[in-house]
Design a protein that fits this description.
34% helix; 21% strand; homodimer; alpha+beta; 15 helices; seven-stranded antiparallel β-sheet
Chain lengths: 456, 456
């Protein structure tokens, strides 16, 4: 229950539509895509920066936990109101304020849906590259808070690479402005990145200046079939070293191939144990030569065959296998647990070898797919047999994260730390650095009202 | 004079070579390329992180100002020991620790000279794009501290875009580690950027993980001649919107053309009042088509002629005009003052119109050249006649910065704030944001020992 006085102060400027505490509303905002949940005491829907500021001020005064929330598509519980309190839904901050075509940037509010921004800018010949899997639902604010990644990171980077500036309301209600529309800008400290990926624990983003790039003229897709995942993975750094910059390099291991084989609708050589799915974009006239080079590198690395999609329908067919992967895996086992890790790209073969060993050790099926071009692997783990104890899966997940760390990798690549991996953050970050991060949190949010129980 | 006890503690681990207080050494480290100067009490040359840490601890205990220093090529006084104290020269941190070819990164110490790193990585087919004009002398540590830019920013971005991780010693002597070798990494707060561009006021960088890219196969140069600078500037966003990504887009105004005309050694149409000098890099087979498109865009925007360099010698000749610009301007006026500003690229024509008006108003000659592709303009100002009071030049500089701000631009693009623009930082950054930056400084450096009198 919120303190009576705080509730009263909130209702001075929020009407009934903007302040909700019905059981239905509280349930709706109690969970996110992580399947974790916790009931908030109230949900607020501010429309103006002044409202966000006043809400935070009140929460700060009355020590009420408050969780900013985009679309709730996060996978590590970033938007779950762990300590009850208030959920602040930013859905009314849904304006694309400006698309500044000649300066290659957009000014947007955090509640804009990622795909809507993409459509809007593509309509005028521009491109916003970050493409998290949930982009049809996820919001720009959530993407920034989580530093969302995606398929196109190989060539284009992740959300942080597109944040030029932010308007942020701090927990004390003060509004600050970071960055600018200028490509070169060395005025003052570069504090934008402090908020990007901070998972709503340091401030509430109310506006963002996002970098845009010219829309690529054309795209083509290629699928390469390999006899072994380590061989496929070895081809990846070589592709990049040759100066070929595919937009995406997705890999499938043999389990993923088995699961999707039937829906693929194109021939897969029998001995195939791994596949690389790659997109190339750019000038239409240059793409055929790039695809040819990509083909040749794959063949020289031992690819059994290479399938090139000649038109949009064929591209779509190749991509269908990737898109339907999650569903397809359920035909092998009904229940999977997932990890999101990163390793330097050349360590992918080592990581994959480790999956096999860890799976054997724990009697757990470990399936992996993901972004070979940027080292981000999505790992799915399931009991090998109905009678495998669930603690085996937990132990295998643990071992996977430990191995990633041993390979100079990270325990979280694009899905955040949230509440789920919070107790493991010290595996990647040393004590002194962690203390420094805690000091930053204390400086910004001395009463820990903002998204408590997340990240640190 | 340093406190006797502090000196004694320093000499416990620094030998005579590493701790110097002779008048010659002190003079040598009293100034940087800004022409500002101030005498330090001593100069230290640590070799190890433990030394850096101990030195900072001692300075923190005895409240001794300390200024980290790379090669001293900065233009805004970032390395000048304004409050005396100690200069910490990082020249002994000069190792390229690792070039990790397959993971596209290098691990380097801060004293490595920028051009040396470039040569080392280019020798194995990689590329470190940031190219500040002083790169033959400047160090990576200095580049990171100043977030150095350069010509290639149009396509490749600036130093901050290549910093994947840092080792930093904080003013209290604690060492922290930021970032990783992973492209995707969302573990903890992203604190690298806090130090990039902080001009040595928040910590001392002792190691950096730098992103590398594949070395472009070939390069070609094009010079376009325009009847008017506003027309030339208008072509720039259009070039980028067409998906052409030149490495560099440098512009010259009419004064620069007059100053360099004779040394150019190629015909310039008589009516030329502006030029764009552009490099294109990439696949050798794709460059001719790109150059042709670039040529066509320039012609369609009213270029009088376009000169394409067919070989390395011709490229060098076109570039000679740019490289000799500083020297050539001295043939017009003996004494120039310089400003480094940024505006969103589409505002360059407005900015150039403003130069003319400001020049008229103050009876000052204003010459501009620079990086049209990223909005970074280098402005040179000189008295129009021998009897122009120097306060006119000062007033004109002031007006130039004010106008940049009015055009959504920045008072510093790539040369830092340092001591020189410190009192103007509020022109770009609002009060609340500035307070927040000051709080960050206080958190990291409560006694303000680290490079006092800079940035804030």
């Amino acid at each position: 229950m919120l303190p009576q006085k705080a509730r009263q102060l909130l209702l001075e400027f929020l009407d009934e539509k903007d302040y909700r505490s019905s059981i239905e509303d509280r349930i709706t905002y109690s969970y996110d895509a992580s399947r974790e949940s916790c009931m908030p005491d109230a949900v607020v829907f501010p429309k103006k920066v002044a409202h966000v500021s006043r809400i935070l001020e009140i929460c700060n005064t009355y020590r009420i936990p408050i969780v900013p929330r985009g679309a709730g598509t996060g996978l590590t519980g970033g938007a779950v109101p762990l300590s009850n309190g208030i959920v602040m839904a930013l859905k009314r901050f849904d304006r694309i304020i400006e698309i500044d075509k000649e300066n290659f940037c957009a000014v947007v509010e955090p509640g804009v849906i990622t795909a809507d921004l993409q459509t809007a800018v593509e309509n005028i010949g521009l491109f916003y590259p970050p493409d998290p899997a949930s982009m049809d639902a996820s919001t720009i604010g959530g993407n920034i808070a989580e530093n969302a990644g995606g398929m196109r990171a190989v060539k284009y980077g992740v959300t942080k690479d597109y944040v030029m500036g932010l308007e942020v309301v701090l927990p004390n209600g003060e509004t600050i402005h970071t960055g600018s529309k200028c490509v070169k800008d060395v005025v003052g400290y570069d504090i934008s990145r402090l908020f990007v990926g901070s998972e709503g624990t340091l401030g509430v983003i109310t506006k963002a200046i996002l970098k845009l790039v010219p829309k690529p003229e054309a795209k083509q897709t290629l699928m390469a079939f390999f006899p072994d995942i380590a061989i496929a993975a070895k081809a990846v750094p070589d592709i990049l070293l040759k100066g070929i910059a595919p937009t995406t390099i997705e890999f499938f291991d043999r389990y993923c191939i088995d699961a999707t084989r039937e829906m693929m609708g194109f021939p897969i050589p029998t001995e195939t144990r791994a596949m690389l799915l790659m997109d190339v974009d750019g000038r239409a006239s240059e793409i055929p030569a790039t695809i040819k080079r990509l083909h040749d590198v794959c063949i020289s690395h031992g690819a059994l065959a290479v399938e090139i999609a000649v038109d949009a329908a064929a591209q779509d067919q190749l991509w269908r296998s990737r898109r339907s992967l999650h569903g397809a895996l359920n035909t092998i086992r009904p229940c999977w647990e997932e990890e999101d890790i990163a390793v330097p790209i050349a360590r992918i073969p080592d990581m994959i070898r480790a999956f096999n060993a860890i799976g054997e050790d724990h009697n757990v099926l470990i399936v992996s797919f993901g972004h070979a071009g940027d080292g981000n692997i999505h790992v799915s783990l399931a009991a090998k047999h109905g009678n495998t104890p669930s603690k085996n899966v937990t132990a295998a997940r643990h071992a996977v994260l430990k191995e990633a760390v041993a390979l100079e990798g990270r325990i979280a690549a694009e899905h955040g730390i949230g509440m789920v991996k919070r107790n493991k953050i010290g595996w990647n970050i040393d004590h002194g650095t962690l203390s420094f991060m805690k000091n930053l949190k204390d400086l910004l949010d001395p009463h820990h009202i903002l998204n408590p129980g997340k990240v640190l």
